[in-house]
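Checklist before submission:
- one chain only
- standard amino acids only
- sequence pasted in full

Submission:
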Amino acid sequence: MTDLAPPELTKLAYLGPTGTFTEQALFTQGDLTELDLRPTPSIPDVFRQVVAGEADLGFVAIENSIEGSVNVTQDTLAFDVDLLIQREVVISIQLNLMVAPGTALADIERVCSYPHAIAQCRGWLSEHLPNAEVQVTNSTADAARLLAENPDGHTAAIAPGRAAEAYGLEVLAGDIEDHPENQTRFVLVATDGIPAPTGHDKTSLVVFQRADRPGSLLGILQEFAARSINLTRLESRPTKQGLGDYCFLMDLEGHVADELVADCLRNLHMKHGDVKFLGSYPAAGTNGDQVRTEASAASRSADDWLADLRGRIRP
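Returned file contents:
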């Protein structure tokens, strides 16, 4: 992953407290861990700090492979703030049931965690704790923190293993998620600036329809199909302007610096509705660095080839 630029961006807000999956994802990015890290109590507060200039960057979850979009993140980016995505980070999610030392499974009367985490453990909870009350917290790590502050012997938290270490809890059951292949995608946002193209990029958009008419979505999708641009995500969201008024959130392969992508965005804006640009940024993936290296080599080779041809033009 390319180091963050420009260097004057030093303060980073993210969903805290210590031990969240957001923090775990953040710590996979070496350049980001060197910044002034500021855990915040909620995702909206992350955005508020960036917009207010209290933080230069924000780092939040945006999508989960099991539960889908994190709506508070999607809606805030789409409707409430003008921020640009700088990069994406994807990590695997392992969830654990943790308790205060000495608490047994039979003692548990309630389970606390973030709504997405609870939803991802429905099967395990139904089998092992069918009568337990479920309580919602601001984050998985917040559930662990609150349990550590009030170890009543009857409450458990669902959180990352790191949270158990941070708050002195015992992991009673590990990897309790219903789908082991579960992953969460996070995004880094800033008020301005588009990272340079790398050859392995993603662009995020919101397209607002000018009118709800037959074939309107088809017309939008044809702009991508005509240019062989691959959409990696397409989701409709209510605009909050009235029943039946929806917009489309899209992720596509490519960068706004690419001619085909730029031409597609131009036509979308001109023909089909208002377009909100959410960013072009390096795409995540286990082979991302290899793809970027190969793309750079191919680009240099193409430049050399074209330069040779142009060098043959007679005066």
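Reviewer check: The chain has a mean pLDDT of 90.
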